Amino acid sequence: MKTIALVAGGPKENLPYLNNFNHQDVTWVGIDKGTIYVKECGLPLAYAFGDFDSISENEKFSLTEEQQNISIYPPEKDKTDTELALEWALTQKPKLIQLFGATGGRLDHLLANIHLLLMGLSTDTKIELIDCQNQITLYRPGTYTIMKHKDWKYISFIPVSQEVKGITLIGFKYPLNNCHITMGSTLCISNELICEQGTFSFLEGILLMVRSRD
């Protein structure tokens, strides 16, 4: 599997148009109510995870009748449905995991889902959290190239670790050179690329990048 697309059951209005992310190398996975979103888009649902407490009994019955690869969990458990699905996805060793339907609604679930991105840092799998307004990714220390995109104008960098050291931004409206920022800093919010491509790099810590629409 090259890409696994996980669709959770967050508010439907926060979803991007999922069909835009469909191609032959994508495996679609529904999480609880997210299974309904996948089916409504006519996308091939390969796996389903969850306690399915957010769908009707008729929808749950139809799903269990139609779907062979389904994992049903009790509502009382120590991990969220999204975490369980993400753990499974990482065992498949894809190049990319895209997580949809994980924003909006309850703030506790949003914060937890952002922190779930940490699970990918010790692997070779990149994890993206995507909604209709934002794309969120976590990075380990290193140097990265980023391309300008007309739909994703704003680029923000937020420290997830206590400190991020040696941040350098090249090709940005607000460049930085070997800058240190601490958790809670807003220094790197709402930047923009002024070149067709730019680079960002840092030496220590964990950095979250958010690309946002206007």
From TrEMBL:
Domain Thiamin pyrophosphokinase thiamin-binding: 142-208
Keywords per UniProt: ATP-binding, Kinase, Nucleotide-binding, Transferase
Highest rank taxon of the organism: Bacteria
EC number(s) recorded for this UniProt protein: 2.7.6.2
Entry's Gene Ontology molecular function annotations: thiamine diphosphokinase activity
InterPro entries referenced in this protein's UniProt entry, alphabetically: Thi_PPkinase, Thiamin_PyroPKinase_B1-bd, TPK, TPK_B1-bd_sf, TPK_catalytic, TPK_catalytic_sf
SMART domains: TPK_B1_binding
Name by which UniProt lists this protein: Thiamine diphosphokinase
Organism, scientific name: Metabacillus niabensis
